[in-house]
Amino acid sequence: xxNQNDLRNILESLENRNYSEYKRIKGPWHxxxxxxxxxxxxxxxxAAASLMRIxxxxxxxxxxxxxWNNLSRTTALRDYLTRRFYNESKKFNQPIGTGKGGxxxxxxxxxxxxxxxxxxxxxxxIEIRFVVGLPANGRRILGQDAAxxxxxxxxxxxxxxxxxxNLDPIAINxxxxxxxxxxxxxxxxxxxxxxxxxxxxxxxxxxxxxDDRPLLKAVTKFSGxxxxxxxxxxxxxxxxxxxxxxxxxxxxxxxxxxxKSTLLHALERGVYNxxxxxxxxxxxxxxxxxxxxxxDGRSVHGVNISPFINNLPAExxxxxxxTANASGSTSQAASIMEAIEAGAKVLLIDEDTSATNxxxxxxxxxxxxxxxxxxxxxxxxxxxxxxxxxxISTIMVMGGSGDYFESADRVIAMNEYxxxxxxxxxxxxxxxxxxxxxxxxxxxxxxxxxxxxxxxNFSPVKERRPIFIKTRQTDELFYGPESINLSAxxxxxxxxxxRAIGHCLAWCYHNKVFETSSSLHEILxxxxxxxxxxxxxxxxxxxxxxxxxxxxxxxxxxxxxxxxLITTNA
Length: 570
Description:
This protein is α+β, with helices and mostly antiparallel strands and about 575 residues long. Helix content is about 30%, strand content about 20%. It folds into 3 domains: about 5-165, no CATH class; about 170-295 and about 345-370 and about 380-450, 3-Layer(aba) Sandwich (Rossmann fold); about 450-570, no CATH class. The chain starts with a helix and ends with a strand.
């Protein structure tokens, strides 16, 4: 049995030798209170850092059963331990020599609590997956430094982050309880006829558009009209009061910079649980909620956009519409129809990111351009049918047009980040100030078409690499020979989610899921079942620690953006 001292001796003996000899440390090493497993040794100082794991027996780590006695608390404990390991490793994470030398890190979590492959907890053991940059001077091993990292620094990091006796039990319980309460809130929404809930005293504004942490300066805490308030029970905090948003058509209005889009952003992120003190930890939406927008230039394959667009020039088919370069209106129509196909039950729409001619066609334009010459049926004429016929709710930010007042079941007016009820007033205005618009949406919404996905073009092979998957933040997935632009998927919040989607696609390809499934819907059901059973690790044979769970709505959106996608009607 190789132990800590053996590892130190080997590393020190490698001083100034060729970098390739680091491979001698691959395998298990027993420390007094944990086991280190070196799974992969990087080939050179500039290659991806070496992949390692820590195993600690639960009786040694000594976490109380109450910290891992249900799925919600276990997920939160795994998240907490990942954060602790990350914060402790930062103290020792300093460049040594060339390349990635000196790096010690783990998958960095953001404001959301996600099921990650960085940490696993069972009643028997804790497993941590992390990476280390083995140090070198050029291509010569710095053995003394490596021994210091793996035999000294690592022991300190493990001691301070993975043993219950060295952690703050109040902070742990707060983290776990926050996650468990959010799950409880979300699980009760549908029974109460709600699609979203915003607790009183929540903090919605973020620091910047690219910094998802709460705004530091004093901000108005959220509170809604009393008659919109509901109480929802939670296992740890008791009844929580806040504003419920019911199923149906909900309009968010108000002046510029008064919090309309901020509220919508909080709702779109409400499909995830948040860490304590984020300000949004008690804001939840149903998980089948999807933000859609226009997306000039995206590709579309075989989508039935006829509920919104018909009679295109040159008799282009809109019941199975394809294009390599969609316009703002056709892209938004396609995204909505794809969302329906993927199982979305709530659509989030912001006029600022929508195609104007898709959202509304006023009476003056109707008079100038007759319907027979206008292929677009605006969303204003389909939004009610969407709910009445298909049961799909909508939450819309609308600051520049009152043409949705007639359809809205609820009108939320934002003023200095506080909501008020303007529903009755909006309906009265709609009655008093008739727009004279002609309804152009027909009697029914229309039938979405389900598609079968062709197995071809989903091979992850690139050149000599059997699986080529890379990501650029959450904006772009490089998969095999393809580059997929996903910058419009605003509810994809973590790069590790996108990596997991890439590995999921490869798994689907190798297991012939595309080939054997009768429709995209069946593919998504298969993936959802696997995620529910085993988490994102099921899609990757390697013990990588940088994958995070994702929603099948984003998986479907990724598939739909493959430029080489081939589909047929299911």
